[in-house]
Here is the input.
Amino acid sequence: MRMSQIFGSNVPSVAQYTDSNGVYTFTQIPAGRTFTVRAYDSSFRVYRAVTDNILAADGDMLTVDITLPVQATVRVTAHRADNTPVTNAYVYYRDTFYNYFRFAGYTNANGMLSIGGVQEGDFAVEVFDRNNVRLPGKHHRDDHGQRRTGRPST
Here is the structure.
């Protein structure tokens, strides 16, 4: 079950959970006033908002279908110029829902770390060695724009 909410100017702010089919119903929304419907995932961290909804007349019904953003796993590989792995490197990432870098973890013995739950859209990865030196790198998207792989290297 997901939580949905509505809010707007002169519109009562209401929240509720969807049923087992993902359906939600809000009643008593005043006609002629714009409102936003927002749906959250179960963590309440990820959401999608549909803005500028309006009911033309009292008693009208409006269907607002919302698809939550895609989440992906980013695989980071850190290696030196000679292609040896950078182990225990600090990995940080930023995605479309947070405008700051968050610590994701350390690379393993192969210089790799997988970061789950990265939101669709642009993202950035930063990798630092044990001396806090930032490693230069780049990130890629596959043809579907959903799987991203970071490959920082020195």
